[in-house]
Amino acid sequence: MKSLLLIAHGSRRELSNQEVRQLTDQLRIQAGTEFKQVSCAFLELAEPSIEAEIDHCVQQGCSELFILPYFLSAGRHVSEDIPQAIARKQADYPDLRVVVLPYLGASPQLVQVLLHQLNDS
Amino acid sequence: MKSLLLIAHGSRRELSNQEVRQLTDQLRIQAGTEFKQVSCAFLELAEPSIEAEIDHCVQQGCSELFILPYFLSAGRHVSEDIPQAIARKQADYPDLRVVVLPYLGASPQLVQVLLHQLNDS
């Protein structure tokens, strides 16, 4: 069973965390039937943590976990913190297949999104 | 004369700032001929500052400045810090027309970008 997990930084400002949850709702609607679960987790400052959400996915029957890092740059969070959290859980669930997709900022489509905002103005 | 300014947070990690500069180069290529200048500025931790880059734009003849905030959430940076920096410069250049576009995270297209990364995997 496939699950999709969006990982965001997390904020002290609850409205920012809500933005991530709403984006996750949109992802769930638009991802189609391939994923039985579409959820989000936060690196820090908000719940659920990455580890807790991976536990939850596995408890729900997830065998393949696709992770989307919702970050704009390939800093320490993307290159170290997220892989370390995943590695800890991979040790608990050696049969879980985990695919970490490129972080958002790596998408060549962002230029088009920015230009679209401009043309809508 | 129209200028386009991408404002990013800025990072201690120079590679992250370089990602923003490369994105700005792509914006310049794809924005077409409407903008005589396409540049970037950083809220903190990297150069140029927002104020310095607005000065530079005006010195180059800019009369209409379109600002794209390269941020994922509408936190303090987007809602307070960037508007305050702009307001300080607007006081210096009362004739400059400034249009602040929605921050990146507000774009409904981000869901599609995330799904695209998934389908490319």
From TrEMBL, chains A, B:
Gene3D superfamilies: 3.40.50.1400
Keyword line: Lyase, Metal-binding
GO molecular function, one term: lyase activity
Keyword S-adenosyl-L-methionine: no
Matching InterPro entries: CbiX-like, Sirohydro_Cobaltochel/CbiX
Signal peptide: none
Pfam family, one: CbiX
Name assigned to this protein: Cobalamin biosynthesis protein CbiX
Source species of the chain: Thioflexithrix psekupsensis
